[in-house]
Amino acid sequence: MFVKCRRYIKEGDSVSQFDSICEVQSDKASVTITSRYDGIIRKLHYNLDEIAYVGKPLVDIEIDASKGVASEEDVVETPPMSHEEHTHQEIKGHKTLATPAVRRLAMENNIKLSEVVGTGKDNRILKEDILNYLAKQTGAILPPSPKAEIIPPLPKSETVPAAPKDKARKIPVPVSRPIVFSGKDKTEPVTGFQKAMVKTMSAALKIPHFGYCDEIDLTQLVQLREELKPLAQIRGVKLSFMPFFIKAASLGLLQYPILNASLDESCQNVTYKASHNIGVAMDTEQGLIVPNVKNVQVCSVFEIASELNRLQSLGSAGQLGTNDLTGGTFTLSNIGTIGGTYTKPVILPPEVAIGALGKIQVLPRFNGKGEVFKAQIMNVSWSADHRIIDGATMARFSNLWKSYLENPASMLLDLK
Ligand code: COA
């Protein structure tokens, strides 16, 4: 069952093969449906935000007779939700792997996919590959932003970009989408990611949560990121704090693998996961989603940042696939980008632990000599499944994670 969340065409429009028709969203992922034919849209079977059913027609397309194909009405059906299926398409006999969004980006920029080298799995062409190709043509530096606009390179003489403003100090403004108040109650079905949230959170209720909080002095890390950020930017990646938080968590999980485990339904067996697939809670227009960075244990901080950029781009476009959204083994939620200090994160089953990060604030603290200094303080709140994790384990893990972040150079010793 799908919910269409965006439509690119209307009745009477001409479409070509691979043109986007609409986006559909299930409780697992969003997928862009593309046209299999050249022709004219004759009928739309659903209005926006209606629920479409697997196997039923979405649109009728009258096939273009001038191209030698029988002129009869053909139908594009709602496909079963397999992201992979929609990303493997044949173009003129040459198999090119790319998502519809990437194909669209290529088309909009008149780029032939056959000329682009894909750096994804099985040579899949990623959005970054298209942007890299464009950047090479225009001499521009890749933008890290999800909007994928091209920004000009820094002139050689120019210094590092200005230090980030304290976003948390911004005055909150009302949301841009005003709620229309009609004076009547309104009931609407729970669909899409909200439906997934109902399922996951109801399952999480069965887990006895143990909470543990601490404060982390990020003064050194803030300084280090300022130094590394422009270097990452030159390589086309936006470096936020998350890659450090994620890598430090993975280093900690190597020491405390019970936090990267799962407990079976009957509570008889614990499975210690080999991969550190660290989920990142993302606030998107479609709602809360938690894609994960796979195999963090073998990734550098830069690779994590690059992967996070990809997930954020896809997440904000509502185009994350099932693979990115499943298989997480541990989660971090940086609610501090919005605000707050401490929170009570809810474990995502079958995972057994989650951490939530508060906003980084400049606060007075004492150094070793008893002098007051301007410290960059962030609070962390952990929740762990108390059936298999005791408080001491959670606290020791947190101490280790904290020590990596408070002395980022110490991470070097354990990085592979
Ligand atoms: N406190 C203050 N500032 C922070 C911060 C924190 N805890 N974490 C990040 N920032 C800064 C970043 O450094 C960045 O600044 P810059 O542009 O000057 O470099 C800015 O805030 C924006 O960061 P963002 O682009 O959002 O990247 P990120 O990697 O830090 O965070 C997400 C990515 C996906 C985690 C974040 O965008 C998000 O969605 N957070 C909300 C998570 C949520 O909803 N959790 C609740 C689940 S119930």
Give a quick set of tags describing it.
binds coenzyme A, seven-stranded mixed beta sheet, Dihydrolipoamide Transferase, 21 strands, 10 helices, alpha+beta, OB fold (Dihydrolipoamide Acetyltransferase, E2P), 27% helix
Description:
The chain is of the alpha+beta class and 416 residues long. The protein folds into three domains: 1-70, OB fold (Dihydrolipoamide Acetyltransferase, E2P); 75-142, Dihydrolipoamide Transferase; 198-414, Chloramphenicol Acetyltransferase. Helix content is 27%, strand content 25%. It is built from ten helices and 21 strands. The strands form six sheets. Strands 11, 14, 17, 18, 19, 20 and 21 form a seven-stranded mixed beta sheet that branches. Strands 4-3-1-6 form a four-stranded antiparallel beta sheet. A hairpin with a 5-residue loop joins strand 20 (361-366) and strand 21. Helix 6 packs across helix 7 and helix 6 (242-255) packs across helix 9. The longest helix has 16 residues, at 219-234. Bound molecules: coenzyme A.
The description of the largest β-sheet is:
7 strands, mixed
Mean pLDDT: 82
| CATH-derived topology of the largest domain | Chloramphenicol Acetyltransferase
CATH architecture of the largest domain: 2-Layer Sandwich
